[in-house]
Design goal:
By secondary structure, the protein is of the alpha/beta class. About 30% of the residues lie in helices and about 25% in strands. It has ten helices and 18 strands. Strands 3, 5, 6, 9, 10, 17 and 18 form a seven-stranded mixed sheet that branches. It has a six-stranded parallel sheet with strand order 13-12-11-14-15-16, sandwiched between helices. A three-stranded antiparallel sheet has the order 2-1-4, with no helix packed on it. Strand 17, helix 9 and strand 18 form a beta-alpha-beta unit. Helix 2 crosses helix 8. It is globular and about 65 Å long. The protein starts with 8 loop residues before the first strand and ends with a helix.
């Protein structure tokens, strides 16, 4: 589909005012691609915790802004400098948009490129995102979706998947070692359980919701602990299954006020805690840092080569996403209501191109 065959307007769900519902409206379809841009016809997009932060003004996003930073689709147009994609390719959207190419991070190792302080923005966070019929992404940050991976699986991988994947990479664990996921039964957590299991790690899943505990268990956690029993009981149960030492590394996925402190407390002496959740403040008792030498490392998504490695891993190990699908952009208010109700297990996704997803499912079922 060439640009001249793309509709001049499209339906989109936008943040037009902070702390107010999305406005679902027709807006101009993006045109005038930069050299490294891709125009995707969006197939599936999903909702992330960070979308709520965008809506509440945490990132001072310039409004209006089309929501969602978890999207995937088919390429309908390419910028003049794109060489490693072609029209019709299935693509998972990369979040960073237009790195500067000359700062210390851009000139450093690839693992630092997405930290460029001079980015034009992050798709769906500070620039227009995936809750639309079309979206613009940077080819240098985006990844090809393996044939075995569905669009419905790929969309949540754009942030939830690559974020927990990046956390596991930063933890640097070897097969047989132990990891605790604090917030194991959420969108990131249930993917983390599956990734870690396939990597050969021993998983302690910690959550404080019945739905979360069940999802963590079903997603491969070897041990599941209810954090509502209290900090001391949780520590005791972790030590029971780690020879009294604690886990080799913990990853904090919950933004509960005491989540980071709990993650450090269940980690062994000299171990590492990876902080992924984004509460306003991360609070940890000094004794964890000083007397137990717990090292805390923040983690923000991961570089493109890791995103492609993750997608290939998803295909190889049949990683699945627990989804709560809604059909059509008009249904987004119902998705947001479900998510805010606190009872959603897994990820909420919006099927934007219903016809294509029906065809995709029929192909996979051999019909």
């Amino acid at each position: 589909m060439a640009m001249d065959r793309v509709s001049k307007t499209m339906l989109a769900a936008q943040v037009v005012e902070y702390n107010q519902p999305y406005r679902i409206t027709n807006i101009p379809t993006p045109t005038g691609l930069s050299p490294h841009d891709l125009l995707l016809k969006v197939k599936v997009a999903s909702l992330c915790h960070t979308d709520g932060m965008v809506s509440s003004g945490v990132f001072s996003t310039k409004l209006p802004c089309t929501a969602s930073h978890e999207g995937c689709g088919e390429i309908v147009a390419l910028g003049s400098s794109v060489t490693d994609f072609k029209q019709g390719d299935r693509v998972m959207a990369g979040l960073p948009l237009h790195r500067c190419g000359h700062c210390a991070d851009c000139l450093g190792p690839e693992e630092f490129w997405h930290y460029c302080p001079n980015l034009k923005g992050h798709v769906g966070v500070t620039t227009d995102g995936a809750f639309a019929e079309y979206m613009v992404v940077d080819a240098r940050e985006s990844s090809k979706i393996p044939e075995k991976v569905s669009y419905e699986t790929a969309a949540p991988m754009a942030c939830a998947g690559i974020t927990i994947w990046g956390g596991l990479v930063r933890a640097g664990l070897k097969a047989g070692e132990t990891v605790a996921l604090v917030g194991a039964g959420g969108g990131l957590g249930h993917l983390g359980c599956q990734f870690a299991r396939a990597m050969g790690l021993q998983i302690v899943g910690i959550d404080a919701r019945d739905e979360g505990l069940e999802l963590a268990r079903n997603s491969g956690a070897h041990v599941v602990i209810d954090a509502r029993k209290g900090k001391e009981k949780t520590i005791e149960e972790v030590k029971k299954v780690t020879n009294g030492n604690g886990v080799d590394s913990a990853i904090t996925l919950s933004d509960a006020p005491d989540a980071a402190a709990l993650a450090c407390a269940v980690t062994k002496m000299h171990g590492t805690m990876i902080q992924i959740a984004q509460p306003t403040d991360v609070s940890v008792p000094f004794a964890e840092l000083i007397f137990r030498d717990i090292r805390i490392h923040g983690s923000l998504i991961a570089p493109r080569y890791e995103a492609q490695r993750m997608l290939d891993f998803v295909a190889e190990h049949n990683i699945t996403v627990k989804t709560n699908p809604f059909y059509g952009l008009e249904e987004i208010p119902k998705l947001v209501e479900l998510a805010h109700g606190g009872k959603m297990a897994g990820k909420g996704v919006v099927v934007v191109d219903e016809d294509e997803i029906k065809k995709e499912k029929a192909r996979r079922e051999g019909k």
